[in-house]
Give the backbone structure.
Amino acid sequence: MSATNEIVQDHGQHHHKDLAHHFDTLEQQHDANTLGMWAFLLTEVLFFGGLFAAYTIYRYKYSAMFEEASNHLDITLGATNTVILILSSLTMALAVRCSQTGNSLWTGRWLLITIAFGLMFLGVKFVEWKHDYHIHLMPGKDWSGKDYWHWQYAKKAKDMETEAHKNGSAEHSLPDRKDVLADNDPSLGVRGIQESQQARLFFLLYFCMTSLHALHMLVGFVLIGIIAYFAYQGAYSPEYYSPVENIGLYWHFVDIVWIFLFPLLYLLGAHMGH
């Protein structure tokens, strides 16, 4: 009887409070958690891969119009968001490091700073999307029909913006819709409709890819916030920090997706000038 009690007591001494019952050691649990996260990220790669494949195919098929459409995106805002996300990856790495060293206070702080950078990213993105909406770059039902004035409007707005920059003016007005409709050259005919359809395809992919990326960021905010809460409660230690490390892997994946999106979408037409 005494021998049995000794075994139970010895098992209790070696059983960590964060060790799930179906694992033998914390190391085994950590490896399983990491493997599960990498498997999840692989499915995310396949998820985004479909959009990247579609982009690659149509980029090859309609290269000229994709380049022209890309030139309507704001490279400065895109580059700013790239820097913001790189900084957020740094703060996430610091959060993981703090969790590994048992610094719960700074683990939570770095996680919240990461969320702040993410919100800055979405704020810049909102400003960009708002501008895109005002110059009719968001694909609508009239984009590729016989009234293909949306694309003509966007091109005229781009020309006015370029002219304003040449004159050293930061402010410029948007073209009037009636003027664009009046100037819509009927001689373009089928070619004009085809160009509008191809440009619409680029912006359809652009908004799908960036919106999906933004959705992943919103999910990340919720998860990071939950983990930051537990970090402030002292839930993580040098022996147990898997949740922080795994959310770090997720966030780095989100950042890497943007690293691919930025050159593919924004720099495609950069050689054409602003």
